[in-house]
Structures are given as C-alpha cells and as structure tokens.
Write a structure and sequence with these properties.
By secondary structure, the protein is of the alpha/beta class. The chain has eleven helices and 17 strands. The protein has two domains: about 190 residues, Medium-chain alcohol dehydrogenases, catalytic domain (Quinone Oxidoreductase, Chain A, domain 1, Alpha-Beta Complex), CATH 3.90.180; about 130 residues, Rossmann fold. The protein binds nicotinamide-adenine-dinucleotide (NAD) and zinc ion (2 copies).
Length: about 325
C-alpha cells in the first residue's frame, strides 16, 4: 500500500510499504480525513520528542474499520470511528491514575508509530471511538484537537469554571478557537481573544468571541478570571501573567521550548492567590469530546480551511507553515 514517510533526514516521500499487521486487540482503518498541526511541522522540520523515524505522520483522524482483530468487542467492519492517538501502556502509575496522557511508555500514533497518512492504519481498538458519520469527515478528524481543548477547559474547572466568567484566550489558532467554542458552549460571560495576526480576527469573531484584539489593543487595566495561553509564545505568556485577576487561573496550553524561562513574581502569585496549571494533550477526554463534537460541529467546521490529497502531504505542510488557514486537513480520495 502507499504511505507518506518522513525520514530521519526529514525527507518527505510517498512510498510503498506492506499493509499493517492485524494484531489481537487492534483494528485496521481506512482513513477518510486527517488534520495536520504544529506537531507534524515539528516532525518534518527539527524533530518532535518521541518521534520514531522513519515515520508515517497523521494523528488527528477518522476512518472506516476494514478489519477487526482477535479479542475486539464493540467494533465491526464498516463502523465509522475517530481515533485517540495516545496509545498508553495501561499499567504504569499514570495509567492506573486514569491519566493515560502522562503514561511512562506513551506511543502516539503518527509520532512513535505509523499514523494515518497512508491507505490503511492499525490502531488499538480501545483507541477507536464510534462517531455518527453524519457530523462530517473533517469534523470527526477535529475531535482529537477538540479533546485537547476540552482538557484545557476542564483544567480550568470545566463548565463550572468558565460559566459566567470573563475569559481571555491568547492565540486564535486551532487550540485557542476550539477553547473559545467550548467556553461559549459552557456559558462564559465574555470571551476576548488576542492574536497579533489580524488575519485571524474575523474567524475568531465568527466562532463567537466578543472581542478579537492585537496584543497592543488590550487595555492595561483589564483583568480576567480565566486565561488560556494557547499561542506557545513568550510574549503571550508574559501578557497572560499581567492580566490575571486576583484569584484567577492561567492554563498553559501552548508548548514552549524545553529550556525556555520566563520571570514570574512569586510575591504576586502569593498576594493575588493566582493559580497556574498546565494542560498536556487530551488526557481522558476523548469520549467526552466525541459527544461534544455532536453539539459544536457547526462551529468547529468553520475552522477547517484548505484540504489536500494525502499524497500531497509535503505541499500541505508547506502551505500550512506559511498560511493563515486555521486547520489544514488531508483527504483520501
Ligand atoms: N496542550 C495541548 O494539548 C496542545 C495541543 C495542541 C497544540 N498545542 C500547542 O498550543 C499552541 C497553539 O497551537 P495551535 O495549533 O492553535 O497553533 P497555531 O499556530 O494554529 O496558533 C497559534 C496562534 O498564536 C498566535 N500568536 C503568536 N504570538 C502571539 C501572542 N504574543 N499573543 C497571542 N497570540 C499569539 C499566532 O498568530 C497564531 O494565530 C502551540 O504552542 C501548540 O504546540 C498544545
Ligand atoms: Zn495535532
Ligand atoms: Zn502507562
């Protein structure tokens, strides 16, 4: 079968490979839609922790079950599923605490093992969740980033944490806008999104933010109860720290370089009783994100920009790196 392959030398090729083996407890899928994100860019450019080169990318995907391995219950040929790409060991201390995303032996599909940019992909049956196909293929492939955004909102207390509150979201990319859609759905009082790229503001407004601003347009004295740093940029984190209200909560969603440091004022953390929490990946939120996508698909679909044939993966990645699209996806026809 054909598959996209990124080599250790970062060369992107379409190659012929053998079909995936059907292990016990696994299913083989024929993907129909797959998103690409910053993680794929890192894999193609300077490397992403845990990547097993050569690798077939693709971790935000949905598809049809084409064969079912031994000991699989609840899935059959033809079922339409979205996939949680985080394959966890099931028995380390983090798995036993129901925090599979922190698993000591985490192997993300499309990073640590073969992903969906191929004719077929094998996944553990426990990672495949049935979805109503009527929500749309692209929307189903957005469930993975929606689950990450949901984990971020849950890290802020979920519906109780954001309902009736003033929210600031830094970054109007996929993460920031999915977080926005969820906060709106959960009844946030007012959502402000900050992004230095004014080209992103119209989309932010169309998914329901109250104000879309550049960093300089945010008033010095404004304070927010809940802030999401969803930019992965140091100026965004500094701005977040300046605008938290007393007792407020900052959720760190953006991924920074491992060794990056930022000054914080411990006196202010103490005096203002600030809370700063990290949100890493999708935790155990995939099933909840499947349900949520059935409610917010109309809004989430607005984020889907250009789609490319999976065999044009290289062009898709290059276009994404330079463009203003929110979510670029691959199609498999
Ligand atoms: N925690 C998680 O589970 C998780 C999941 C996916 C992505 N991420 C990370 O979240 C961040 C955002 O991901 P994305 O896919 O939305 O990326 P993206 O590139 O689509 O969006 C990032 C946005 O941040 C904006 N930005 C840059 N500097 C800014 C600033 N100073 N203030 C406000 N906005 C600024 C950019 O203009 C861009 O629109 C990245 O760091 C990514 O690695 C985290
Ligand atoms: Zn991703
Ligand atoms: Zn584990």
């Amino acid at each position: 079968m054909r598959a996209v392959r990124i080599g250790l030398d970062r060369l992107i090729e379409v190659v012929d490979v053998s079909e995936p083996r059907l292990d016990s407890g696994h299913v083989i899928l024929r993907p129909v839609a797959c998103g690409i994100c910053g993680t794929d860019l890192h894999i193609c450019q300077h490397g992403f922790p845990g990547t097993q080169y050569p690798v077939t990318p693709g971790h935000e995907f949905a598809g049809h079950v084409v064969s079912v391995g031994k000991d699989v219950t609840g899935l059959k040929e033809g079922d339409f599923v979205a996939v949680n790409p985080n394959v966890s060991c099931g028995h380390c201390e983090w798995c036993l605490e129901n925090k599979p995303h922190l698993c000591n032996a985490l192997t993300p599909i499309g990073v640590g093992c073969a992903g969906a940019a191929a004719e077929l992909v094998a996944v553990p049956a426990k990672n495949a969740f049935q979805v109503r196909e009527s929500i749309g293929h692209g929307e189903a492939a957005l469930i993975e980033p929606l689950a990450c955004a949901l984990h971020a909102v849950e890290s802020a207390g979920g519906a109780n944490g954001v309902k009736d509150r003033r929210i600031l979201v830094l970054g109007a990319g996929t993460m920031g806008l999915l977080i926005t859609i969820i906060c709106r759905h959960f009844g946030a009082a007012e959502i402000t999104v900050v992004d230095p790229n004014p080209g992103k503001h119209a989309m932010a407004l169309s998914v329901g933010v109250d104000r879309a601003l550049t960093p300089g347009q945010l008033g010095d004295g404004e304070r927010f109860e809940v802030i999401f740093e969803a930019a992965g940029a140091i100026p965004a984190l500094r701005q977040a720290l300046r605008h938290i209200r007393k007792t407020g909560l900052l959720v760190q969603v953006g991924v920074h370089e491992v060794a990056t440091k930022v000054d914080v004022l411990p006196f202010t953390i103490y005096d203002h009783e600030l809370r700063i929490v990290g949100s890493n990946s999708l935790a155990n939120q995939f099933p909840a994100a499947v349900d949520l996508m059935h409610d917010v698909a109309g809004q989430a679909a607005k984020l889907i920009g250009d789609t490319y044939s999976v065999w044009d993966f290289k062009t898709a990645v290059q276009a994404m790196a330079g463009g203003t699209a929110i979510k670029t996806q691959l199609r498999f026809d």
